[in-house]
């Protein structure tokens, strides 16, 4: 009786959410290619099964966990829902985000290119390349630009199907800006390397390393400021190295800055 009752109770009891609550995905739960969204799911801020995530849930999760303005959270949802292949969908699941060529793109900081297979699971060797460019205990925008550019070069050199849309390129800027100024300090554009490594590798908020929910509200202007700075530094680095990524990726009009990836 006891052994059959407890699993049934667990099935109908809502998962707790909070900074002190954490569990990895179970056998029938899904995760995606975004380390921070996976992290919020493991903590229960997003549904722990990773499925059927609504606009309201997205907005509340980003605000409650990271103090991200709900308007910005809503913009993120608008992009995330485009990955759901069901017509007129009103929710998305984390594994939808791995559908290649929508938001997911080549040259990820921690995932394989679609050409090589799985785009969702963490890839340690790819992440090791990324973090090798974080050369101090504190990551700054130049280090982020160097890491991102290195991943571009490796992907272009090894993936015969390499491609990068303008939207994918801007999501790349958003991803790199976000791990610095959402996890770290939006005023200085820096973040302790240990915090970022922990989120990427363990998909858990680094509370034990001293991280706390930011006191100041993170807004769209904060994101746009640091995406622009990252783009400026990246373009200067690309030009200095004669990298063809700069010429390829800057074609076309820039999409709105109201999006980012984790």
From TrEMBL:
<dbReference type="InterPro" id="IPR036851">
    <property type="entry name" value="Chloroperoxidase-like_sf"/>
</dbReference>
<dbReference type="GO" id="GO:0046872">
    <property type="term" value="F:metal ion binding"/>
</dbReference>
<protein>
    <submittedName>
        <fullName>Chloroperoxidase</fullName>
    </submittedName>
</protein>
<keyword id="KW-0479">Metal-binding</keyword>
<dbReference type="GO" id="GO:0004601">
    <property type="term" value="F:peroxidase activity"/>
</dbReference>
<feature type="compositionally biased region" description="Basic residues">
    <location>
        <begin position="248"/>
        <end position="262"/>
    </location>
</feature>
<keyword id="KW-0408">Iron</keyword>
<comment type="similarity">
    <text>Belongs to the chloroperoxidase family.</text>
</comment>
<dbReference type="Pfam" id="PF01328">
    <property type="entry name" value="Peroxidase_2"/>
</dbReference>
<feature type="signal peptide">
    <location>
        <begin position="1"/>
        <end position="17"/>
    </location>
</feature>
<keyword id="KW-0575">Peroxidase</keyword>
<keyword id="KW-0560">Oxidoreductase</keyword>
<feature type="region of interest" description="Disordered">
    <location>
        <begin position="237"/>
        <end position="262"/>
    </location>
</feature>
<dbReference type="InterPro" id="IPR000028">
    <property type="entry name" value="Chloroperoxidase"/>
</dbReference>
<feature type="domain" description="Heme haloperoxidase family profile">
    <location>
        <begin position="18"/>
        <end position="225"/>
    </location>
</feature>
<keyword id="KW-0732">Signal</keyword>
<keyword id="KW-0349">Heme</keyword>
């Amino acid at each position: 009786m006891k052994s059959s009752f407890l699993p049934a109770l667990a099935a109908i009891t809502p998962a707790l959410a909070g900074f002190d609550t954490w569990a990895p995905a179970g056998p029938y739960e899904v995760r995606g290619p975004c380390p921070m969204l996976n992290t919020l799911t493991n903590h229960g801020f997003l549904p722990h099964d990773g499925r059927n995530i609504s606009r309201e849930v997205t907005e509340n999760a980003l605000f409650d966990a990271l103090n991200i303005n709900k308007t910005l959270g809503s913009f993120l949802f608008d992009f995330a829902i485009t990955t759901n292949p069901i017509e007129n969908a009103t929710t998305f699941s984390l594994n939808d985000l791995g559908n290649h060529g929508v938001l997911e793109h080549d040259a990820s900081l921690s995932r394989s290119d679609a050409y090589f297979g799985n785009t969702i699971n963490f890839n340690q060797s790819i992440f090791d390349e990324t973090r090798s460019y974080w050369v101090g205990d504190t990551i700054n925008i130049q280090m982020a630009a160097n890491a991102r550019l290195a991943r571009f070069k490796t992907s272009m050199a090894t993936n015969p199907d390499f491609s990068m849309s303008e939207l994918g390129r801007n999501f790349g800027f958003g991803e790199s800006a976000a791990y610095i100024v959402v996890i770290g300090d939006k005023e200085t554009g820096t973040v302790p390397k240990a915090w970022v490594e922990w989120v990427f590798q363990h998909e858990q908020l680094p509370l034990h390393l001293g991280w706390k929910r930011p006191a100041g509200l993170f807004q769209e202007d904060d994101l746009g400021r640091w995406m622009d700075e990252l783009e400026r530094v990246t373009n200067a680095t690309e030009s200095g190295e004669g990298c063809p990524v700069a010429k390829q990726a800057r074609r076309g009009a820039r999409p709105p800055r109201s999006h980012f990836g984790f």
